[in-house]
């Protein structure tokens, strides 16, 4: 199940409470982002044991910027990030966000 987050406080809670989770930075107006969201959604439905969250860049710009700064990952949209043990262990953007790439990264970062 996908859960939307909108604030730095919500993200800080995830970092504290979740050992491993995915976050998708999603644009509400970009067709490439829509395609990535569909792949992300498919992954979430098939891998319900992996927590999956997303943010809408237009609604949560401060959070999006904070994540880029905190993990030293250049902001892109769409962008999927795997957070494991409070660190970004994998990320991909645009057409590289696929059900297969998300599953592979999840398996490689146990």
From TrEMBL:
Cross-referenced Pfam families: BrxC
UniProt xrefs under SUPFAM superfamilies: Thioredoxin-like
InterPro entries in the record: BrxC (IPR022551), Thioredoxin-like_sf (IPR036249)
Span of the signal peptide: none
Cross-referenced NCBIfam families: B_thiol_YtxJ
Entry protein name: Bacillithiol system redox-active protein YtxJ
């Amino acid at each position: 199940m996908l859960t939307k987050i909108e604030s730095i406080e919500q993200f800080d809670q995830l970092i504290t409470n979740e050992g491993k989770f995915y976050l998708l930075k999603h644009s509400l107006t970009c067709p490439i982002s829509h395609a990535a969201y569909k792949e992300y959604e498919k992954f979430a439905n098939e891998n319900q044991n992996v927590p999956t969250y997303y943010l809408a860049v237009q609604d949560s710009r401060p959070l999006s910027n904070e994540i880029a700064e905190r993990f030293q990952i250049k902001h892109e949209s769409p962008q999927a990030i795997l957070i494991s043990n409070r660190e970004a262990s994998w990320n991909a953007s645009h057409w590289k966000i696929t059900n297969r790439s998300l599953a592979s990264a999840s398996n490689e970062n146990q």
